[in-house]
From TrEMBL:
It comes from the Eukaryota. This is 2-C-methyl-D-erythritol 4-phosphate cytidylyltransferase. Pfam families: IspD. It comes from Helianthus annuus. Keywords: Nucleotidyltransferase, Transferase. One of its GO terms (molecular function) is 2-C-methyl-D-erythritol 4-phosphate cytidylyltransferase activity. Belongs to the IspD/TarI cytidylyltransferase family. IspD subfamily. InterPro entries: IspD/TarI, IspD/TarI_cytidylyltransf_bact, Nucleotide-diphossugar_trans. Its EC number is 2.7.7.60.
Length: 63
């Protein structure tokens, strides 16, 4: 998915450090975003089996 689609959309990928609790990771991720961002997608690694079609659906639903 990403190899073909990355050139079609303008995304700024950022990675956040984990925390002691799952919400710490999400908070850390939110701290890294630009305040002018219109769309933010967070994926935590506790769900490593997410498929590319799942990610594509989430991104399309957000647009």
């Amino acid at each position: 998915m990403w190899s073909d689609d990355r050139e079609k959309i303008n995304v700024d990928l950022k990675f956040a450090l984990p925390g002691k609790e799952r919400q710490d990771f999400a908070y850390s991720g939110l701290q890294t975003i630009d305040l002018t961002s219109e769309l933010v997608c967070i994926h935590d690694s506790t769900r490593p089996l997410v498929t590319s079609s799942d990610v594509e659906k989430v991104l399309n639903d957000g647009l």
